[in-house]
Each structure stands twice: as C-alpha cells, then as structure tokens.
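Task card 7
Instruction: Convert sequence to structure tokens.
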Amino acid sequence: MLDRSQKELLDRVLNAQSIAVIGAGEVPGKVGYNIIESLLFSGYRGRIYPIHPRLQNVLGLKVYRSLRDLPEGADLAIVAVNQYATVEVLDDCAARGVLGVVCIAGGFRELGPRGEELEERLVERARKNGLILIGPNTLGFINPWAKINTTFYPMHLKEGSVGLISQSGGIGLTMVYRAFDEDLGLSKWIGCGNRSTLKFSDYLHYLACDPKTKVIGIFLEGTEDAKEMVELAKEIVKEKPIVVYKAGRSHRIDFATVTHTGSMAGSYRVYRDIFEEAGILMVDSIEELVAACKALALSPLPSGDGIGILTHTAGPSILVLDELLQRECRVPPWREETVRAVEEVLRGNPPTVIKNPLDVPGAGFDCVTYGKLAQKLLEDEGIGSLLCIFTHNRLWRFPSAELIDLSRHQPKPLLAYFVSPSEGVKEERRWLQSQGIPVYTDPHLASVGLFALHHRRQVLMEEEDEGQGPKFPDLKPYLQKALREGRRILTEVEGKALLSALGVSVPRWQEVNSEEEAVAAALKMGFPVVLKVLSPKIVHKTEVKGVHLNLSDPEQVRRAWREMMESVRPLDPYARATVQEMAPEGMEVIVGLTTDPHFGRVLMFGLGGVFAEVLEDVVFCLPPISPRKALRLMKRLKASQVLFGHRREDPMDVEALAELISLLSHLAVAYPEIVEMDLNPVVVYPRGLKVLDVRLRLSD
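Output:
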C-alpha cells in the first residue's frame, strides 16, 4: 500500500502539469506520433515536450534533442522507445527532475527469463531514482479531468466519478469505449501492465483516496499481491464500491496470462469467493462491469430490499424478473394501498392484473399515465427501487420528463430500461443520466444495474464480526511429537486428539496392535464398528484397503484385519490400526485448509461425495471468519438447500457446522505452522455433527 508521500507523488504524475514524450515521431499512426496527438486531441492544457534527436517539430510543437535540453523538468515522461532504450533512459529522467514515467514498451517479464532480467534492471533504476513507474507493457493512463491521455489512441472522454484499472490494454480500451457508448463519465483509467513497482493494491489505494472517484471498476487477470489487495478492499468497500471482472475460468488460461502480463491467473473460484466475501461485486463481462458501475455512480441506494418493475410490454419484464430471482433479489407483491392507487389511475381501462411486475399495455403508452403509475409504485413502502421499462416508437416520446420529476421529489433509485437501439435513446440517455437515472437498452444489463445497487446496500448493512476468536488450549504438544519424529503429517489419532482437545465431536476410538486386540476393542465398543489402518507412512487409507466400514460381528473384524494387514504391511511393517464406532448416516461435508499461491492459506468448505468431486460445489474464504460469516459461506453453495432444509427434508445443524468452520479458521491463524488441514468427511445431523477423519500437515 502507498504511503502518504508515494500517494501524493502518484497524484502529481496523474495530474501532470508538464509531459515529455520520449520517442516522439512525425509519422501518423506510429506510437510516438499518436501519443502527442492523444494529448492534443484530449485538450491537455499543460506543457508538452516532444523528444527526438533529429526532428524539429511535431504537430506544431518544438522538438527537443534530449531531456537535458528541456527548459524545465517535466512532471511526467511517456517513454515510447524499445525495451532496451527504456531501461537506459530512466537515469536521464531522474537527472532532469521527472517525477514519474509511463513505460509503453513490452518485452519484459512476460517473455520469460531474459525479459525478467531486463525488468529487474528497469525496477532497480526506477527505485534508485525514486521514480513513479507505470508499466512497463502498458498503454499508460487517462485522466479526463486533467485532459491527459498518455495512450496512443486519441479520444475524448467525459469527466465522471468511475475509476477504472485494467491489467490489459485491449480490455482496458474495451472498458473505456463501453463507458463512452453508455455516456458514463470516468475519473481515471489506469493500465497497470506488468506492475513492476506499483502493484494492483497501490492503484486501488490511490483511487480509494481520490476525491474524483466514487466507484472503482477493475479488470484482473492475476496478481501477486492478491491477499494484500483483498484486505485493502475490505476497508475500501466501506466507503466506495468495487466491481471486478476476473479472467481465468479455464484451468488452461495461466500460460496465456503469463505471456501477456507476466502473472498467473490463479484459481478463478478462489478469487471469486474471496473477493465476494470482502464485499467486492464480481461480474462476468465488460458490459456487466460498466452496467454495474453506471448504476452505482449515478443512483442513490435503495431504501429497502424490494424491487418494483413497471412496464407496458411483458416479455422484457419477465426476463428481468427471471435474472433478479436467480440472484436472490426480492420482487414482492404490491401492498393493498398500492393496488387501490393503481386501480384509481387506470379506472379499469384496460382491465389489468395488478401484480409485480406491473404490465399496463395500452394505458402505459401514455407518458402522463405512465408517470402517475410510477409515482404510485414508488410510494409503496415495500419497494426500495423501481425499474421502468418503455419501448421506443418514433410516434411517441419517452416518459423521461416524468421520471426526472419523480427522481427530484423522492429518494428511491429509478432505473430506465428502454427497448430501443442504442442510437434511439442517445439524447434520452444523456438527459436522464445527468439527473441520476441510469438508462439501459438490454434486460440483462438492467438487472445487473439493479443488483449492483442492492448488493451495495447489503454490503453497507453488514455488521463487523463480533468479538474476538476462541481461546485455544496449548496445542503444541499435539504437533511436537510428529516434528520430533521427523514427520510433517499427523496421524489420524493425533489429529482427532487435537480436535477433541478443542471440544470437537469425533467417534470413539481405540488403538490396536493385533487381530485379537481389534476383536476385543470391537466387543467393548459395541457393533457396528470401523477398522482403519494407523500409520504415519499411509495418508490415503482407502487406496490401500485401509478402511473397513460397518463391521457387525467378531468374524467380520478378523477378516477385515487380515485383508488390511496383507495390503498395508508391505508399505509399513509396523502399521497398526484403530477400532472406531460406526457413526450414524447423515449429511457429509468437507472442511479444509489449503495454501493458495496467490492468497496464502485459504479455508475451503463443500458438500461431500459427488457434490465436491464432480460438481465442484465448494466455496473458499480467508481465515478467520465468524460463525455468522460461516453461515453465509454455506449459503453460497449451489446445493446449500440440502443443508438448510429442502422440501420435506429436515435442516441439518448448520449452527454447529458454522461453529466448527469458524473454530478451524481461527485455529489456522493461531497456529500458522498448520499449512494443510482436511476434515473429510464431517457428518452433520439435525442435531450435532461428528468429524470422521482428519489429516493435518505441518510446515517444512
């Protein structure tokens, strides 16, 4: 994260009063020429110093042979030369008082070891000279408020309150052009490229502190500071919403992202779950990102969780309703007083079924009537926001005036979905959005905008986690025995003893060394029982016939012992076993701790069996979490209803499960030497649970 002086320095660079363009050119279409054209075309009011050893002028500007020839130091240098010359020019920049550089060239770590070495030299020089370095392998940045465009794509952009960060230049331009099409103003656009000295979290921190930025949108491939970024985001979302579009759903995408910006995409599922837990809104396309940012930048927040829909054409409202319900939004029926008020406006002409969405064909074509209906719906206390759907027709006008009048006299957000070609609503969009009413021409994106507002409301309503985590007994003795014996993996008995010390319910067990001891233990414990191999050398017991379930008499115990020892003794001549009580059937789940290359230690939870193995119905979060957040984590499973009660099935004891997940998350923090933990299965009942097997691995 940036300290105060770094943040102030970056702000001076992004609002540069003077800019040197190193590698300026005179050939239209070439990078060095286009950058100067971009600055002039955007209306930049500062001083521009093109630099080239042989040229005299470019686009009416005097050209200087080198940085040493400038009449003053420049706040910013845009370096548009090849990667080798880029490294060499940084010392000259510092000597001439340049504060920061945008390094356009690629050819650094995204190309492998030789590029990595070159980038290390670039970073070393930037840090030695105290330079802000944006890039390399970047288009730079755009600041519409300061009329600065350092890219080689000349364009005009509207000033606004949405700050965008992109790891990709091409996707960054897609974001910018989409915002342009939607008449959405930007505060900043930053292409961070390879992030050599400034990390994603640094740019995020800057926009969080930027008074011009109200909403932050991010396109992310992968990042090396993912954990730092998400911890920072948790604080930022208390003040500003963050919307993220993350690439990398395919397991084969890492190679492409490494060769693009030098970083691996990482597990999409881990990123998504952890970002969502932090309060970040995750979206699935650039169009969704812009749609969400537009609603968040222009609209007030809903006064409640109910969504109302007004239309004069049923189909679009059905699609919007379907999407909202899939996102678990609430679209409640109108209250009785609202129904009566609508009936009074319509007076039975035409006959209308008054429900939500409210479809009023015929009468709804009249803008005055449409406006009166919208007013009555907004007065419904069960509705926190209203979506107004209207179709384009050259023979009638849009109800824009009526909607603007309503927005001025009541606090609830109004969103407009106009069924129209984009060009057909160009002027209406500009007018309505200037008055705080986002306009959409697509049912999906309209639902995204509505959901973004309600997601933001929910994030702000979230309470801080209550209190401190649990106080643990001294668990070092349970870990030290394995370490003294040179082992990093605890046996099942050691793991269950540790869990028992924490008050976690596990089956009764007894260690046995022979067939006769196994039979005696089973008789004492009572049938049915389970026989499991006990060996520090055997981790995956089922793969070597090391688990025998539901043994119901002494003879079955004897046969199981002989079969098991015949299989495991070649692997460990000293292998023993445990006899355990056979737990009743229940709902099987998995709770685990793993180490992610981007986030470090990550807690995982999922339903057992086919849900986890085939459907990959698992969720992730960073430890620690409270029981309340653990309950919310469980609800993110696709098949969560089987835990919380489905149809006539009784719900499982989700409170006990939430306590277990929270306990293990705090254990992971209190004992960082535990780097991997696998409780599989955990059997949950309508009352209580039992951990049937456990595996813990310690750090090297």
